[in-house]
Design a protein that fits this description.
By secondary structure, the protein is an alpha/beta fold. The chain has helices spanning 13-51, 66-92, 94-122, 125-150, 177-187, 196-200, 231-237, 250-256; strands at residues 60-61, 64-65, 155-161, 165-167, 191-195, 210-214, 226-228, 245-248, 262-268, 276-277, 286-294, 304-311. The strands form 3 sheets. The chain has an 8-stranded mixed β-sheet with strand order 7-6-5-8-3-9-12-11, with helices on both faces. Strands 1-2 form a two-stranded antiparallel ribbon. Strands 4-10 form a two-stranded antiparallel ribbon.
């Protein structure tokens, strides 16, 4: 059989404090008694050495026998010990400390009350409440502005000729490797919104991007892509993306003009025969913020310029 474990009673903190105080007092009294016994025995011993055995009769301090000086010094230490244990404890013990603490706390409360009166006179309660409300409103405005700054920046990205040509027969009419690299760099990790024909022109899904297809065909499906039927639905799906991209074709760009905040356009400096066109950019609505020219080289047959527009 297993013996039942004894429960240890919990000691109240106040009782524990009283117990610790009593224990210390007992130790102090015990040490005082030991000091007294040693003092008496030592005094008798020194006296016997000098009077009976004549040890140190010729040794004096300040005109008195050495043992008398030793006994008096020891007596002085004993009196100090006695005062510490009895007199100081009696007049400056725990009760005295508690009274001093109460007086200090009371004085601090009075000073705090006086300071509060001064504050009330300098800053009336109604004024403080008004300032608090103004502070809360200001903070709320800051939060709203921060949230507005954090909302998605819808961006259209395209490459178009001088006559806004995008392509013919669902394909580009130029080959610009650097523009392809820029498109990949900007769109990777984001949602890309496109029409059905643009999606079907891809040899495969573009890696590390979420494909959203806008199609009028209610039955249309595409493996690995999300199919919707309006631009609003497409943007709702991409709302968690800080910068979703609209990538074409012509009809989708026209729809996206009313929703977009930014246009990243590669303007190819040549006119082309095409069947899909980028919409005209209204200078009253859009502001050109950045442009970067790229000249002809062994890999690029046509010169082109990267243009970045922001909605005014």
């Amino acid at each position: 059989m297993f013996s039942k474990k004894k429960e240890i009673p919990q000691i109240d903190p106040q009782q524990r404090e009283l117990y610790e105080h009593a224990r210390k007092r007992i130790v102090q009294k015990k040490r005082l008694f030991q000091h007294f016994v040693v003092f008496v025995v030592g005094s008798v011993f020194f006296t016997v050495l000098n009077v009976v055995f004549g040890y140190g009769k010729d040794l004096t301090f300040f005109g008195a026998d050495w043992y008398v000086v030793a006994v008096l010094g020891w007596a002085f230490l004993f009196v100090l010990h006695f005062c510490n244990v009895w007199l100081f404890h009696t007049f400056m013990g725990q009760e005295w400390s508690d009274r001093q603490m109460e007086r200090l706390v009371s004085k601090q409360k009075e000073e705090i009350a006086l300071m509060q009166k001064d504050i009330d006179l300098m800053y009336p309660k109604e004024e403080l409440v008004q300032k608090k409300e103004e502070f809360i409103k200001a903070k709320a405005s800051e939060i709203v502005e921060e949230l507005n700054e954090q909302k998605s920046m819808i961006t259209m990205i395209a490459a178009a000729g001088e006559n806004n040509a995008l392509g013919k027969d669902n394909d580009l009419v130029w080959h610009l490797p650097d523009d392809f690299k820029r498109f990949k760099k900007l769109t990777t990790g984001h949602h890309i919104i496109m029409g059905r024909k643009t999606f079907e022109s891809f040899p495969k899904l573009l890696p590390n991007r979420v494909h959203i297809i806008i199609s009028r065909n209610k039955e249309y499906q595409a493996e690995g892509a999300i199919v919707v039927h309006t631009m609003g639905d497409a943007l709702a799906i991409a709302k968690s993306d800080a910068q979703p991209f609209i990538i074409g074709g012509g009809e989708i760009y026209t729809m996206g003009m009313d929703y977009s905040d930014c246009i990243e356009l590669t303007r190819v400096h040549e006119e082309f025969e095409a069947d899909a066109f980028f919409p005209e950019i209204n200078p009253e609505v859009w502001k050109l913020e950045k442009e970067e020219f790229h000249d002809v080289d062994e890999k690029h047959k046509y010169p082109f310029t990267y243009l970045t527009y922001k909605r005014k």
